Amino acid sequence: MRLILSFILCLLITSPLFTASSFANDYETGKQAYNTGDYKTAYEIWLPLAKAGNDKANIGIGNLYRRGLNFEYDFAKAEEYYYKAFGGKSPSVFYNLGKLYIDQVDNIELQKQGLIWLYVSKNLDHPLAQNLTQIALKIGLPQELLDELEEKGNEWIKDNIPTR
Fold first, then answer.
1. What confidence tens digit (pLDDT) does each residue in 113-163 have?
2. 149 and 131 within one domain
3. How many separate domains does the chain show?
4. CA-based torsion, 38, 44, 50, 52: positive or negative
5. If residue 124 lies in a helix (H) or strand (E), which one and from where to where?
6. CA 161, CA 155: separation in Å to the nearest integer?
7. Among 69, 65, 70, which Cα is nearest to 83's?
8. Of 6, 35, 76, 81, whose CB is crowded by the most CB atoms within 10 A?
9. Phi, psi of 133 (to 5 degrees)
10. How far apart are CA 162 and CA 37, in angstroms?
C-alpha cells in the first residue's frame, strides 16, 4: 500500500500540473485573457497560481481589485494580493503598490508611502516608474519632501535587495 501511495505521489509531483513551466504557461494564458478584457477568465486562471505563491498571479489579481476589473474597486483586497507578491521583490509589485497608495487622495501618508514604493520600482528599472517626477508633481509635494522619500526608497533597496 505504501508503495502504491508513493508511486501516485511521484506521478502527481512530476505531472505537468505541478511544474514551473506549467505555472508560467498558465500565467501567460491569464495575461492574454486580461489583455483582451476577459477579466473573469484571467482571475479564474490566476487564482490557483496565486494560492500556490506565484508572484505574477498575485500582482495580476491585485490589479483586478485596484482597477475595479471584474470586481468592485477594493483597496484592501488589492493591497492583500500585492503583499502576497512582496517577497519576490519584483519591481512590478512595488510599482503597483505605489500606484494603489498614490491614488488615496484623502490620505497624504499613504501617498507618501506610495511614492517610496514608486521610487523603489524606479530604481529597480520598472519602465512605468520612470515618469515618477510627473506623478510626484501631480500630488503637489515640495521637492525637499520628494528628495526625502526617494532617499527612503533607496535605503529600503540597500537593506532589502541583494546587490544587482
1. 999 999 999 999 999 888 776 777 777 788 888 889 999 999 999 998 876
2. yes
3. 2
4. negative
5. none
6. 10
7. 65
8. 81
9. -60, -40
10. 36
